[in-house]
Amino acid sequence: MRGNIIEKYCSVSFDVWGTLIDLNYMLRRIAYVAAEKKRENVNLYTSKVLEAYEKSKMLRRRNPEITPNQLLEKSKEIMAEKLEMNIGTVDNIIGEAFRTAEANEAVYQDVIPTLDGLSRLGLKIGITGNVLFWPSRLTISLLEKVGLSKYFSIYVFSDEIGYSKPDREAFLKYAETAECEPERVIHVGDNVVEDVGGALSAGFYAVLIQRSLNDSIIVKPLRTAVINDMQELLRVIEQF
Questions:
Q1: Structural domain boundaries of the chain?
Q2: What is the pLDDT of residues 121-172, one digit of tens each?
Q3: Residue 73 CB: number of other CB atoms within 10 A?
Q4: What is 24-103's CATH topology?
Q5: DSSP letter for each residue of 139-173
Q6: What's the whole-model pTM score?
Q7: How would CATH label the architecture of 1-21+107-238?
Q8: Calpha distance 216→154 (Å, rounded)
């Protein structure tokens, strides 16, 4: 089986937030640190942080021409406004939230067994990610802290390459960096537009992870699957 898989596939690319690491956990950590600093109610600051997140996501959707680094700065401005703090203070709060994050709470339980399985298959494993509120170096540092970085040999982030998912150029840059033909790359993420749409537009296979669903499905003609547990990815790779 391993030989057949290596012949068919070259690499598996992952989104980070909502796919490998719980984004809501990190946003709650930021809210907690901010509330502690201001000696305010945590629930109030959780609402403020979530509002900033939704507003920043909407900014990206409505302004596709905005560059990743412009979006990074704009999103920090939005967070600072919501928290009634300056950007420097927001940066410090985010940094502390990352430093104090707990691996057993941040990483989804189905992730490490899946990455172990992919490693045994001999596939190249990497990250294709966007940025919002914090630069990619913080995400990479968190992957190291929680013990995931050992699995990844390729990192492609929007603030480094100048393209954000779902732009097909972000995915093609991943394929180029991995030295793989796009049609031999599988991308896994939790967003229909950014991950599935973008990956398919570049010729990748696309897998949507939705842990709230009751079942998984593979649509071979569309080179697409929807899974409710990351460990289902290993079955999908065999059956695509």
A1: 1-21+107-238, 24-103
A2: 999 999 999 999 999 999 999 999 999 999 999 999 999 999 999 999 999 9
A3: 13
A4: DNA polymerase; domain 1 (1.10.150)
A5: HHHHHHHTT-GGG-SEEEEHHHHS--TTSHHHHHH
A6: 0.95
A7: 3-Layer(aba) Sandwich (3.40)
A8: 27
